Amino acid sequence: MQAPSGPGARGHHGILATALTALLMLLSLAAVSHVRALTTPAVTTAARGNGVRLRVASYNIHAGTGTDGRFDFARLTAAIRALGADVIGLQEVDVHWSARSQWRDLAGDLARATGMSVRFGPIYDLDPPAEGAPRRRYGNAILSRYPIVASRNHEITRLSTQVPDPRPEPAPGLQEVVINARGARVHVYSTHLDYREDPAVRQMQVDDTLKILAEDGRGHRSAPQVLVGDFNARPDAAELAPLWKTLNDAWTAREPSAGGMTYPATSPALRIDYIAVSRSVEVEAVHVAAASASDHLPVVADLHVFRR
Q: Rounded distance, CA 137 to CA 180, Å?
């Protein structure tokens, strides 16, 4: 059939053509918007106003013995205060352990001196030297300016230094706290991995730690996790490789070049102290702080964590 002709027919076709063009444009815009939605990076939790800035530190305090070989509690307290951290994971913490730290409760005394809350996770918990004296304990601790809503001292594989002919076996000392940082529930862990040259025990400890973090992750979906401590291994050590498949090394997240040396404090040549974070945690800045209160230097990271 021949198409209609004449002025009336041309007007009708013009309206149809305009409508069709508009429809095609709308479909095209929708397609472009869909592509942009798929390709544009997600807005960070901080940018959405959902982020909480959290300064975290890790410090092996060497039971308060500084670079001069002397125990000095006032110096140690000043070094910790100077970090300006909201949460600090401590290693080599004495609690009525021996004369080297004046038989002090370093965990409790540091909490009182800094006005922070503390949870102490003993690795060793031994009988007192005399009847009526406190038990001798040594391990890891976490100081927090924010409320601690839960805590637990987890077991990981250890090779004891307190018994003859030790064998690798589960022992406590991986201290965990859950803090409420202005509405963000954050799991923070302080650990101290085996110091021996043979990496076998460290490898077992890494495996144990990852299982604990995974279990916590299942119980608290998307909760930020921060693991700090003295790992006694370089970042490229084979035994640490499984950690980096699950966590981000805060130093390399912000400082991809070499650096971050923490040991020995007098002339640091090794990076063995770490802050590692779960994938949802954003690393804003990281640095190694100057201090002479221990044979290690503290490492400090400014993080953004999210409120669920």
A: 28
